Amino acid sequence: MDNFIFFVKQGLFHVLDWNAYDHILFLIALTVVYDFKNIKKVIWLITAFTIGHTLTLILSSYHVISVSTKWVEFLIAMTILITALVNIFYVKNTTKQTKTNINLVFALFFGLIHGLGFSGYFKMLIGSAHSKLIPLLEFALGIEMAQIVIVIIVLIFGFIFQSIFRFSKRDWILVISSIVIGVVLPILKRNIFW
User: Fold this and answer.
1) What is the spatial distance between Cα 122 and Cα 7, in angstroms, rounded to a whole number?
2) Residue/partner pairs of 39-47 with CB below 8 Å, 24 or more apart
3) Any idea where the domains of the chain sit in the sequence?
4) In the prediction, which pLDDT does 97 show?
5) If DSSP codes are grouped into helix, strand and coil, which group holds residue 13?
6) What is the full DSSP assignment across 140-188?
7) In this predicted model, what pLDDT tens digit does every residue of 18-59 receive, in sequence order?
């Protein structure tokens, strides 16, 4: 039971760590186009992201794949930028109807990239343990729980700004996506690998 709690907490703090806010930025960009009416869609999106994240952790933990940290950090920042830019360029469509199927593919694919960013630390956590799968699944549970917390916070802020402060959904998406871009551009510049 101690190991279970340890790995779930590691997953929680992996997402909720203010020093590693790239995960939070991605979740904000992914979630900002939705509201509470779409909570099931959002849960499916973050679950797809967690599945991708976990798959690359598994492959990395078993030494099937290995990618340079410089590449991974750059690609993580790119996934955040792309998500926020898609929000801005397709804001007219997202305010009418949010296409979940393509977003599921993006969330899964971007989860694969983000999982590589934590693989080195996770390998250090589990050391040379023979059974790596159970800790990986416990870690994934912590990630999923933390992502649900972030998503609910984003949806609450969206509700407050759209209903109390009378932001239109379009303006909410544009402002938050622009803020995400403003935060991620310096990260992207810092992680350029060439």
Assistant:
1) 10
2) 39/155, 41/98, 41/100, 41/103, 42/151, 42/155, 43/148, 43/151, 44/100, 44/104, 45/100, 45/103, 45/104, 45/107, 46/107, 46/144, 46/147, 46/148, 46/151, 47/144
3) 22-121+152-190
4) 57
5) helix
6) HHHHHHHHHHHHHHHHHHHHIIIIIS---HHHHHHHHHHHHHHHHHHHH
7) 887 999 999 999 999 999 999 999 999 999 999 999 999 989
